[in-house]
Fold this protein.
Amino acid sequence: MQWLFELFINQNSVPHTLLIISLVVSSGLALGRFSLFGIELGIAGVLFSGLIFGHFGNHINAEVMSFLREFGLILFVYAIGLQVGPGFVSSFFRSGICFNALAAGVVILGALLAIAISHFGDIPVAVAVGLFSGATTNTPLLAAAQQILGSLPNIDSQTLKMPGLGYAVAYPFGIVGIILSMLLIKKVFKINVETEAEAFAKVQQDNAHIPVWQDLTVEHSNLHQRCIAQIPFFEGVVITRILHDGEVRIATPDSHLFVGDTVRVVGDKVPLENLKILIGPESTINLQQVAKNLDIRRFVVTNNR
């Protein structure tokens, strides 16, 4: 156990840094899962965990910390790009200009407020930048501010820490403030989330032009051992999966149906309702949960051809 003890006391070593980072991440994720009045911190729990570790004097190697900060920021931005990239161009020309104008307004107003706080509150600009990035939960802004400060001449180590200090102070209140604002809006406008979700789902289902799916049990004896291509009333409706003998398979025009099978049909609502009379009732089996040999992916079509 001597090696483990040395890991904790040798605070400038790389192994000590990796150990502390691992403990902060693991404990922060566990803290983020803790629910209080139905509210969870989520990934923000890692920040609170880091604040606790730092409060008790756990220091890490400065070079490793700088690398992890830059590497984490790269991964963060890269992941965001992968997530929104496929539909960015189409969504930008549809509603992106309005959203970007609103976002720019939030940033500009926040920056003006940070400048006012720095001027009238006699707070150093470096701290005000950290407060701004923390209050808006904008981690890339903090990284950019630290990078700019690091490139300036005659900047000591204490000044470089100021944006991080302001960020750490403001970030928890930024998270709590957003949550409280949403709860206040919900209370003032008397919004019931479950009711709104049900109403939205009903509007989608009532619109016959929005494709929906149903799992139906084959009970009509005339369909027994007939392939899909031989059944005329499947026009405008697609059979995507068939559960036969406990195995879910991809449906093709040559696939045969048997009484007792469960099929997933996708199409407009009205034809699907009519198919219940011709095929059978809605099944209690959810093929998506039963299928172990099929993978589900969501694709955004961006190629005009």
